[in-house]
Specification:
This protein is an alpha/beta fold. It has ten helices and nine strands. Bound molecules: adenine.
Length: 239
């Protein structure tokens, strides 16, 4: 997969994309990431990329011309163009899977008070990474690159992404590692029992109870089995 990031601040991405799984995926050719400096496409002497909003109001708005010329310089027939904005569609793990199947993602990072709305007419999609306002789209683009890259073939072991949070509509069950007793805080007995059926049942119950406690909105989207309803009605049996 190829990912192109249109930004005024390419240097923000350096260490994030050089480290860990994304860094390794780039080194192994699983993903290639390139940057376009939007300011390079400004036409005036002072390289302005923003201007005051029509109708008045606070702040500056990114202009169509430099942004759309930057986009045209990299857009191809297989490109899927996304603009990062707090007024976009909320980003989810399901969306990460959809994007991981694309050939070429172009991520446009807005700055200042926003972008000329006509830029949106050239996008396939506008995405928000959450209900808060960041100083620009760069951190959102990092979130998308990170979450998409780890789903690509060859980025990490496939089993690692099968049972994690959101993959079955639930949050992940709690995980533990050695020692079994850390300063009196003990790992649940079932996990050291060696009984794989019981361990699987316990993990499913924990995922269900955790989701009910902190993300009831996720649970409302699920078709619950009789067994699941029983677990939710008697959480004390799974402590
Ligand atoms: N730019 C500013 N805030 C944002 C958000 N919440 N998501 C994506 N891009 C943004």
């Amino acid at each position: 997969m190829r990912i192109t990031i249109l930004t005024l601040f390419p240097e923000m991405f350096e260490s994030v994309f050089a480290s860990s799984i994304v860094g390794r995926a780039r080194a192994n050719g699983v993903v290639s990431i390139d940057f376009v400096q939007i300011r390079d496409f400004a036409l005036d002497t002072y390289k302005h990329v923003d201007d005051t909003p029509f109708g008045g109001g606070a702040g500056m708005v990114m202009k169509c011309q430099p942004v759309l010329d930057a986009l045209a310089s990299v857009r191809g027939s297989d490109s899927y163009c996304i603009s990062l904005t707090p007024s976009g569609t909320p980003y989810t793990q399901d969306k990460a899977h959809v994007l991981a199947a694309k050939q070429h993602l172009i991520l446009l990072c807005g700055h200042y008070e926003g972008m000329d709305a006509r830029i949106g007419h050239h996008m396939d999609e506008e995405i928000s990474i959450g209900d808060y306002v960041l100083t620009g789209g760069e951190i959102g683009a990092m979130v998308i690159v990170d979450s998409v890259t780890r789903l690509l073939d060859g980025a990490i072991r496939e089993e690692s992404t099968k049972e994690e949070s959101f993959e079955n509509g639930l949050l992940e069950y709690p995980q533990y590692t050695k020692p079994a007793d850390y300063q009196g805080d003990r790992v649940p007995d079932v996990l050291v029992s060696g009984n794989h059926q019981k361990i699987a049942a316990w993990r499913h119950a924990q995922a269900l109870l955790k989701t009910a406690a902190v993300r009831p909105d996720l649970l409302r989207k699920q078709q619950l089995s009789k067994e699941d309803e029983n677990i939710l009605a008697h959480p004390e049996e799974w402590q």
